[in-house]
Write a structure and sequence with these properties.
alpha/beta, seven-stranded mixed beta sheet, 11 helices
Length: about 270
């Protein structure tokens, strides 16, 4: 099944952009427009997100297979791959499995590591489980506006910016009722894989990777790439650049878009 995508720009090398968990191609439109001045930019919706198809399975294997199918259907040769968070893990695995399609990779605020930690309630797994279960648990049947949905979410998700981001996944069905666009049931079922997959062990028989360049961008206020992760990134990608964007958390493209664009442009 074909992934939904948007193409911006008609000339120059190809860039393929993959969003993170709960995201979509919409989140990267402003970045895409900037990059499209010199490149052909494809903004994709991964399975179970945006306007792409829903499937029961949400593994990195299937997301990489979807991306390979997209490259073949669109007859793309080599591309620069940009991936944020979950999309960054898809980029790393795709590039390792299909290096012939890859010119370089830009991984935004995620490391090749298992994020399942000893503190399942306060760590990344607990954080995302709380968000997904909250979204699954609210009753949308009586909501008449996005403000109604926001009020329902606010009881368990006090962060206003986070709620605004999640609300981008609300749409109306054929009966004009509010529904979630993302496949929350699949994401809930596959959360262990999303959080733990594409770790250092996956690259054990592939290191070092030298046949394409790698840039890792991390938010200065984000916990996703720690100092101790740098050694493992360098073990896999010895020539990788690791750059910190100050005054940014996990969603760098929303918090510091110009710094993100400048670093990507310098790299490519």
């Amino acid at each position: 099944m074909q992934l939904n995508y948007r193409k911006i720009g008609e000339t120059g090398p190809c860039i393929v952009v993959l969003h993170g968990l709960y995201g979509s191609s919409d989140n990267w439109m402003s970045i895409g427009r900037q990059l499209s001045k010199t490149h052909q930019v494809y903004l994709l919706d991964l399975r179970n997100h945006g306007r792409s198809f829903h499937e029961a399975e949400h593994s990195y294997e299937t997301m990489v297979a979807d991306l390979a199918w997209f490259f073949q259907e669109e007859e793309l040769d080599q591309a620069i791959l940009i991936g944020h968070s979950m999309g960054g893990k898809v980029v790393m695995k795709f590039a390792a499995d299909y290096p012939e399609y890859v010119r370089s990779i830009v991984v935004v605020d995620i490391a090749p590591k298992n994020y399942m930690d000893d503190s399942l309630e306060s760590g990344q797994y607990g954080f995302h489980r709380h968000l997904i279960r909250t979204m699954l648990g609210i009753d949308l049947s009586d909501a008449t506006s996005l403000k109604d949905v926001d009020e329902k979410l606010s009881a368990k998700i006090p962060d206003v910016k986070l709620r605004q981001f999640l609300l981008k996944n609300i749409t109306r069905n054929s009966e004009r009722r509010y529904v979630w666009r993302i496949n929350l049931k699949a994401l809930d079922q596959w959360l262990d894989e999303i959080v733990s997959g594409v770790d250092y062990a996956m690259f054990a028989d592939r290191m070092p990777i030298l046949n394409y360049r790698a840039l890792f961008l991390r938010g200065g206020n984000s916990p996703y790439i720690q100092e101790e992760d740098e050694d493992r990134i360098k073990a896999i990608y010895p020539e990788a650049q690791i750059i910190t964007i100050n005054d940014a958390g996990h969603w760098l493209h929303a918090e510091q878009p110009m710094q993100l664009i400048d670093n990507i442009k310098s790299f490519i």
